[in-house]
Amino acid sequence: MMQLSQILKSLLDFNDSKSCFSDMKLCLKRLAKVTSCEDRNCTFKIRIDSNFDKDASDFLNCVQRETNIPELRPFLSYFTDELLCNVQQHACVQEAYAFAYVEQATNHLFLGIADGGRTIFGSYVKAQKYLEEIGDNEANSLYFAQKGYSTKNLPEAENRGYGLSSNSRIVVECLSGAFAIISGNALSYREANENNFYKLPDNMEWPGTLVIVEIPIINEPINLYKYIY
Fold this sequence. Notes:
The protein is of the alpha+beta class. It is built from nine helices and seven strands. α4 runs antiparallel to α5 and α5 (73-91) runs antiparallel to α9. The longest helix is centred in the middle third of the chain and has 19 residues, at 73-91.
C-alpha cells in the first residue's frame, strides 16, 4: 500500500482535524508535519489573478530541480498546468498553494495542489450539470470529476474534463502511484487495486479542493498521450 493512504489517515485522525479543515493553511501545516517535511520550504503560494505564470513556473522549476529526472518533466509540467488551470477556472479564489516533497528514504515524490475556494461539488452546482446523477452526495461529484465529466459549457468538447481524470490515470496506471482528492466533505483515493469514494464525517470538510499524489521517482520514458483522453 502506498504511504499516501497512511498520510491521509493521519490527517483525518488528527484530534483537531475538524477545526483544522476549516482553515486551509492550518491543514497544510498539518500535512507538512505528517509528511515530515515541516522543516523544508515545500509549500508555494500561487497568486491566481496576479503573477500566476511566474508563481506556477517557480513551483515547477523547484520540483524539477528536486527530482532531477528529465523523464519526469513532461508529467510534472502537465500535472501543474492542468490542476492549476482548474483552480483558475473553477475555484473562484485569489490564491492557491502547491505542495512538493521528495521522501529520500523511499525515493517517492509527493505533489499537491490546494485551494480554499469552490469545491468540485460546488462547481457542478454552479454549472447546473449532472445534478440529478450526483444528488446531494459530494463523493459522487468526485467520481464524475475523475471520469472526466466537465462543468464547462463546451458542447463541442462535452465530458472532457481532462485535468483530474487524465492526471489520475497517469499517476496510477503509468507511474504506479496513488492519487487522492479531498473536496468539501468528500474524499477519493485511487491506487493500483483501489478506487474508492468516501463521505467524510459530519462537520469535517476541506474549504475547497486538495489534490495530492504520491509517485515513485523513476528514470524511464513516459508516454503521457496514452493516458490523455
